[in-house]
């Protein structure tokens, strides 16, 4: 593995860092999250049109830049550094890869160029707060997490009067999904829904446009922005009341739900790398702010950063951030195919995400502590990172479940002869 970045990758990092440094300070972030969109729409258009950020990992054939998970992770590290509120994660990390993997030729041609240019935004809606499970990060995604055939979740029904071998249109969705990232503003919603009733239960993905082709709102679709502690990660409740939807992947392949679980798991691997890199960027920025502050704040006539106890705490945080950065980069490299062109081992993304979330949580907590009395005020900049750390773990974790899922995937605690394998025997020692 060559750990050095290419000239193109370094240019992506440098250009994005310079732009965000000018346009996205803490005051600008706090102002952006209080807009109806929850982000700076002008800045998002600039990121999309000038830098091609939402299309960074999409093929050039669909208007994308043609890069991969590594470049997307580097971009997310820079957006995480300033705690940027934007539809990047929802659009480029969650929704676009699923449309690329499962969509029909017509659906890809209609949606992906518009997503890559920033003309449209998209998101993935999963019922019951099961986003991490749907992406196979905290558990298997081949179960009934989308509804299970009973009340709750999101149900999809094909009216009886339509022929069973028709196209992808004609479906109706019922139900509700909460904690949908940027769900109140997304133009395209990729919705996981349960079909087939109890007897033929399966999960499929559907596309719902927030507006019809005539510009009017989709009937039966109600979206409400939810109150969240981390305002930089806007979330919404999406309610579906007999909403017309289109099956993602038209024809028999889409009708049978072929490859849905595998596509979600593959998306989860690359999403975990991007989210880990984003957490690393946030942790690195919070640590840098804290180091700068302890060099200025004095106590007993000297900077508190000169005290050995403070230096030891900061050194531990530095090691944690660097370890998390290495894990995030490796996960992005593995998601892009690693050495073999295939995903380089199960559980890599989940482990990297767990380590990055843990590092961000530790750095954010110490940032509040080491900023002293001012750091405890809710309005202080340190709380942007503290809130991001707390809410990301609630949305994507917890950390121990991410690690448990990785251990399960590699068979670390697999049963042998009816008894659990443990410790050295589990890894072949």
Task: Tag the structure with descriptive keywords.
429 residues, alpha+beta, Butyryl-Coa Dehydrogenase, subunit A, domain 1, Butyryl-CoA Dehydrogenase, subunit A, domain 2, Butyryl-CoA Dehydrogenase, subunit A, domain 3, 3 domains, 7-stranded mixed sheet, two-stranded antiparallel sheet, 15 helices, 11 strands, disordered C terminus, Acyl-CoA_Oxase/DH_mid-dom_sf
Describe this structure in words.
The protein has 429 residues and is an alpha+beta fold. It has 15 helices and eleven strands. The chain folds into three domains: 90 residues, Acyl-CoA dehydrogenase/oxidase, N-terminal domain (Butyryl-Coa Dehydrogenase, subunit A, domain 1); 136 residues, Butyryl-CoA Dehydrogenase, subunit A, domain 2 (Beta Barrel); 166 residues, Butyryl-CoA Dehydrogenase, subunit A, domain 3. The strands form three sheets. Strands 1, 2, 3, 4, 5, 6 and 7 form a seven-stranded mixed beta sheet that branches. Strands 8-9 form a two-stranded antiparallel sheet. A hairpin with a 2-residue loop joins β8 and β9. The longest helix is centred in the middle third of the chain and has 35 residues. It starts with 6 loop residues before the first helix and ends with a helix. The C terminus is likely disordered.
């Amino acid at each position: 593995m060559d750990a050095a970045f290419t000239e193109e990758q370094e240019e992506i990092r440098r250009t994005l860092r310079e732009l965000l440094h000018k346009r996205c300070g803490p005051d600008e972030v706090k102002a952006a999250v209080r807009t109806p969109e929850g982000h700076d729409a002008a800045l998002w258009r600039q990121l999309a049109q000038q830098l091609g950020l939402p299309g960074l990992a999409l093929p050039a054939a669909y208007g994308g830049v043609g890069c991969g998970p590594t470049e997307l992770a580097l971009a997310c590290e820079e957006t995480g550094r300033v705690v940027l509120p934007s539809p990047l994660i929802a659009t480029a990390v969650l929704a676009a890869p699923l449309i690329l993997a499962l969509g029909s030729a017509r659906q890809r041609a209609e949606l992906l160029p518009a997503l890559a240019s920033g003309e449209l935004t998209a998101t993935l809606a999963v019922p019951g707060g099961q986003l991490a499970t749907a992406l196979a990060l905290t558990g298997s995604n081949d179960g009934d997490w989308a509804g299970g055939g009973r009340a709750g979740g999101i149900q999809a029904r094909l009216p009886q009067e339509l022929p069973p071998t028709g196209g992808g249109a004609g479906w109706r969705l019922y139900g509700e999904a909460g904690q949908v990232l940027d769900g109140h503003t997304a133009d395209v919603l990729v919705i996981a829904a349960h079909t087939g009733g109890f007897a033929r239960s399966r999960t499929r993905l559907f596309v719902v446009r927030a507006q019809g082709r005539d510009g009017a709102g989709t009937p039966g679709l109600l979206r409400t922005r939810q109150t969240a502690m981390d305002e930089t990660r806007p979330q919404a409740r999406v309610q579906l009341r007999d909403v017309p939807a289109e099956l993602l992947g038209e024809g028999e392949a889409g009708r049978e739900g072929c490859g849905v679980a595998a596509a979600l798991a593959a998306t989860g691997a690359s999403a975990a790398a991007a989210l880990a890199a984003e957490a690393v960027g946030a942790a690195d920025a919070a640590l840098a702010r804290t180091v700068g502050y302890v060099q200025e704040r004095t106590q007993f006539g000297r900077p508190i950063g000169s005290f050995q106890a403070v230096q030891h705490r900061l050194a531990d945080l530095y090691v944690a951030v660097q370890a998390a950065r290495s894990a995030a980069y490796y996960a992005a490299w593995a998601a892009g195919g690693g050495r073999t062109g295939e995903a380089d081992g199960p559980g890599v993304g989940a482990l990297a995400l767990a380590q990055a979330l843990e590092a961000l949580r530790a750095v954010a907590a110490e940032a509040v502590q080491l900023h002293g009395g001012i750091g405890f005020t809710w309005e202080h900049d340190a709380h942007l990172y503290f809130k991001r750390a707390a809410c990301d773990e609630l949305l994507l974790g917890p950390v121990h479940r991410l690690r448990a899922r990785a251990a399960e995937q590699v068979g670390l605690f697999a049963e042998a002869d009816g008894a659990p394998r443990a410790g050295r025997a589990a890894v072949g020692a």
